[in-house]
Design goal:
This protein is an alpha+beta fold. It has one domain (3-159): Alpha-Beta Plaits, CATH 3.30.70.1350. Helices cover 42% and strands 29% of the residues. It is built from four helices and seven strands; from the N terminus they run βββαβαββαβα. The strands form two sheets. Strands 4, 5, 6 and 7 form a four-stranded mixed β-sheet that branches. The chain has a three-stranded antiparallel β-sheet with strand order 1-2-3. Helix 1 packs across helix 3 and helix 2 packs parallel to helix 4. The protein is flat. Residues 1-13 have a biased composition (Low complexity). Belongs to the asp23 family. Residues 1-25, 137-160 are annotated as: Disordered. It comes from uncultured Rubrobacteraceae bacterium. Residues 14-25 have a biased composition (Polar residues).
Length: 160
């Protein structure tokens, strides 16, 4: 079976063509994969800044109330350009105070390249990273607080 990438740049994403049909990969899929891969690196938060921390916390609260999974959007601070066979990724992140930024950004870059290439078949040409904030651990919403809010929301749902 022969496969060939076809498609158009921009919002339509990429298409993998074979003799039995085609598979289209939307830009938003590549964007989510890149965002999730970046978040897999310790002490990295997508989007950066206090606003992103608040958004992430509010997303967790919303998830607890609505029953959806995850806290916050994995696409915050992520933009992609997807061509026929390649993708370029731009990320905006915040790091926790004390991490070595060059090593951390390289770990993020490696994670994003590995995940996007292995899951989509696209070759990642570049991952540009902007570190726009350094956060102290107490600035980040505490996991225990998030779990407590989620638990309270679940209890309220059961009562209703």
């Amino acid at each position: 079976m022969t496969q060939q990438r076809t498609g158009q740049e921009g919002r339509q994403g990429s298409s993998l063509q074979s003799d039995r049909g085609s598979t289209n990969i939307s830009d938003s899929v590549v964007q989510k994969i890149a965002g999730i891969a970046a978040q897999e690196v310790e002490k990295v938060q997508m989007g950066g800044g206090t606003a992103a921390a608040v958004t992430g916390f509010l997303g967790s609260v919303s998830s607890a109330v609505t029953g959806s999974s995850g806290g916050g959007s994995p696409t915050t601070g992520v933009s992609v350009e997807v061509g026929q066979e390649e993708a370029a990724v731009d990320l905006t992140i915040a790091v926790e105070y004390g991490v070595q930024i060059p090593q951390t950004t390289q770990a993020v870059r490696d994670s994003v390249i590995n995940r996007v290439e292995s899951l989509t078949g696209l070759r990642v040409t570049e991952v540009n990273i902007t570190v726009n904030d350094v956060q102290f651990p107490e600035e980040r919403p505490q996991l225990g607080q998030q779990q407590e809010v989620e638990q309270q929301a679940k209890e309220q749902e059961r009562r209703a």
